[in-house]
Known about the structure:
The protein has helices at 2-11, 46-56, 82-89, 108-115, 126-132, 134-142, 172-184, 192-198, 246-252; strands at 22-27, 30-36, 65-70, 93-98, 119-121, 187-191, 214-218, 237-240. By secondary structure, the protein is an alpha/beta fold. It has 2 domains: 1-142, Cytidine Deaminase, domain 2 (3-Layer(aba) Sandwich), CATH 3.40.140.10; 172-252, Dihydrofolate Reductase, subunit A (3-Layer(aba) Sandwich), CATH 3.40.430.
Amino acid sequence: MRAALEWSWRGKGWTSPRPSVGAVLVRDGVILGGGHTQPGDGQPHAEVMALRQAREKGLDLVGATAYVTLEPCSHWGTTPPCCDALIEAGVKRVVIGVLDPNPLVSGRGVERMEAADIEVVQGVLEAECYRAQDDFLHYIVEGTPFVTLKAGISLDGKIALPSGQSKWITNSTSRDRAHLLRHHADAILVGIDTVLADDPSLSVRRETRSKQPARVVLDSQGRLPLDAKIWDEAPQLIVATCGAGQRKIDALR
């Protein structure tokens, strides 16, 4: 399951609004294939990618065990059911990290596989699998966005000097982590005072290929400068305002 989790984390940030599921196929302690959910509607899920990788090697999958971080889907959406793909491949055992709370699945994948005489084991490394897919699972259960709060705070609980001047108080390791969190997110939200004080770009800056999330600015009076760095590299910029004049709104658009 840890190998499946590695695949899940590789896909995190690319697959939204779908979960970043990871899967591996194993027989006699040897990994036959692995993969994660691919970006975009209609693209293969993790189980199909693992099956495809194993078949490209010419490996026989009959009797193999599949480790999947999230319950295989059992319904037709933009792709066929993954549990059917595992059944047709001759997989005889499926180990699941987390049951899918999506009402379209929610145990139906387990039922279909068990009806096909596949042994199903649930709850393996459940907490770690939940963490890898927390954004999707939170949204399905709560119906609200998954929010991560990021703040650079000194030991005495401060985020700036007494004068209000902002200084870096984080190190390179924590900044790298912050950029990874940005890559995982669909959008980054800040208030207008942060933009005016720091002029941040809010872009993802990592050595590896990354996704640039949308930027959201809470700007009640429409004070966002048209030459702010936040405009750079933004695939989408959303300005939430209630008191900006029509001229400023037109300029922002």
